Amino acid sequence: MDGVPRTMQTPSKSVPQRVVAGKASPSDDALLARTAKGDRQAWGALVDRHLAAVSRYAGYVLKDETQAEDIAQDTFVRLARKAEDWTTDGPSLRSWLYRVARNLCIDYMRRQRGVSIEFAEGLPDPRGSAAIDRDMDMKRLIGAALDALPERQRTAIVLVHFEGLSGTEAGIALNISVEAVESLLARARRALRLDLASLAPDLLGEH
Amino acid sequence: MNRKDNDMTEARFAALLESYGAEPDRWPASERAAGIACSRASLGAGAALERAAALDALLDSGAPDTTVSDELAERIYALAPSGQPNCVPTDNVIPFWRRMLPATGNGWQKIAATAVLGIAAGVLFSEVRHDGAGAPIATAAITMPLTTVAVADSGANIGDGVALGSLAPQTPAPQTLSLQSDMASLSFTGSEDPLLGSNGADFSGSDDVEVSLADLPLL
Do B62 and A205 count as a contact with CB atoms less than 8 A apart? Predict the structure, then answer.
């Protein structure tokens, strides 16, 4: 697999599309079927397609690169074991992967007693915003705002906004209905807007 | 519920923006066309779209640039199933030592876990018993396979079926391992399930919690 670019794609503004111009990529289901028969290239294609996103998601949740790698690895161990029994009438592979990764993250956090699943690091006190360096790294700022969200809200916004899952796919990953996903998303966006508006009002057009 | 284009109202359009933001690609496919039409129908809708787009842009600017390490990618490439039933190579999956200790948390936990593991290793591999007359008698080595071992209250996990490597078929049955000697007595309870709460079907691990760890029971 050498030479395969492994840099995670920065999530784009539009939903990621996996269609190569003029030629559709094999579906996840097709690749899994080939993987189950021992096709290493198909497995490699699946890894290339999904590893970055799973690892990134775990990183969002755990804020620990090493543990995020372990979670990504465990997720793919389970996928390798699942390939033989994969059925096309179940959830999409993306939903399945995120759900497994999320559950692994939760299990990991449960084992680390003292680490709250709510990740209550929180934002800098908005009352101190005037003192915030204007050159503060925007990624850090937004990362802090995401950290301040309850886990399910953060997962919903990460899956739908950053990773491009549909509401339905995110619902499968979270084991909730689409309507519940939309509720989580709306609450997450309201909270993010509130938090970020106090720190970067000009960027949100709120003066 | 699967909403259709003709269900689009101003309220629903506002809800779309609140949930999914301004990018139509994120909206449910069945409502996309109507949502776009709605966004052009009034000044108010256009303004709401712009407001949502501003938040989208701000969030996009905070998207992390992370990379997958070559080491991780190679380990996962190596997991490719062979095509034989129940045969997933996991030899190099997880460094064994990484899971010997708590990854994070209090230093005393790591120290305690290390100490207990050291004692356990000593007992396992060089168990010695006194027969009452002072002459030490070596006993047979304990060779029971170990899956997951929860060590007292330290939170340490000693690997699992994956961490221990090998061409693991599926996981073995739960088991309890008890070690005893005249010098020391240690007791471990084996826990097979490496994922607490696994449903064992399509999805692994716990499901859907939004709780504080303070609410969770101790091991």
Answer: no
